[in-house]
């Protein structure tokens, strides 16, 4: 019987093509606007590491100088998000976490060994520890992370991204080949597979939605080579260290590294915080960390919210888009009312030959279902066009932000059908109340 109602609904849509197109297009526009906004917001704010985000913590220490606070926000003292190399050495040596890594950055000319010097390009290089790759679930296409020996000695080894491997080596297995950084010959030990954590939480900057850096080297390599890009990275000192030797800089309390720790479980947070407090007390005894101890740990989600990467502005945009969808649905409901009331004579005739009100309601429900389904399919097409347009405008953003996954596509279709049926209930109810006698008199 349901197939019969759908057949009648399809014939009804074909009888009024202009009105049907208006209803489907109205829903499609509303659905597209809502889902484009929702997709971008969802992809920009989703958990970048859901399997372990509750066990990963960034460490912030009260390491600023005694003269004045690092920053005041709403009357409250704020501590730095970064730590000094001196504290990295101290935290690493204690080895209280399952895995831990410092994360730095520098800028230098780079090229494949086979390329001419004039083909070299200036690139940002990520300096870190080998735990970085397992902590943040970095997949490898070829090779692997560098060894513990490479980590501690700062050997000239490098891990590169799949994109850079495609650019320099045509996608071939480049493990064992060499890249030149500045004047140093670096051996490739690993090629990452596609890896795009969104947001790029591990080193927050203004580029949290861009692709990861193309090259990763041991932090100790950067220290050994005394490379520091003062003008291209974030760093800060409470002491006067201008125009001093690099060794003096890294031995100072200048902050320029992010520090992350992975614990065995989320329940270990309190114990690790006790260790951090004990470390701070130890430094106070040594004449450092003169300010009140405000040191803390942040999970990924807490850190992103503290840094205002995740904010209410994203939610506001989604609410506005869904308000536009509501306006479109109200317009569609008005068009349905016009269409269903225009079928008064047909309703009267069907009621006269034995059709019940339930039969009329089922037919119109099927019609509302088809309108919603067609609107959802067309809305998906409009949404894809909208996402491609955003991608063309904001070329610096990671392309995965503008891609709908299967879950969002299914949600789009379900939302379109459900809202179409819900907003069609009132026109259906009003049409079902039409009296056969009054309509038959007009025939």
From TrEMBL:
Q: Which UniProt keywords apply?
A: Cell membrane, Membrane, Transmembrane, Transmembrane helix
Stretches assigned to the ABC3 transporter permease C-terminal domain: 320-436
Membrane topology note: Multi-pass membrane protein
> Which Gene Ontology MF annotations are present?
transmembrane transporter activity
Q: Which Pfam families match?
A: FtsX, MacB_PCD
Span-the-membrane segments of this chain are 20-45, 317-342, 362-387, 408-429
Where is this chain's protein located in or outside the cell?
Answer: Cell membrane
| Superkingdom of the source species | Bacteria
Question: Which residue numbers delimit the MacB-like periplasmic core domain?
Answer: 20-222
Major location category of this protein: membrane
Q: What is the designated name of this protein?
A: Putative ABC transport system permease protein
Classification from the root reads: Bacteria, Pseudomonadati, Pseudomonadota, Gammaproteobacteria, Alteromonadales
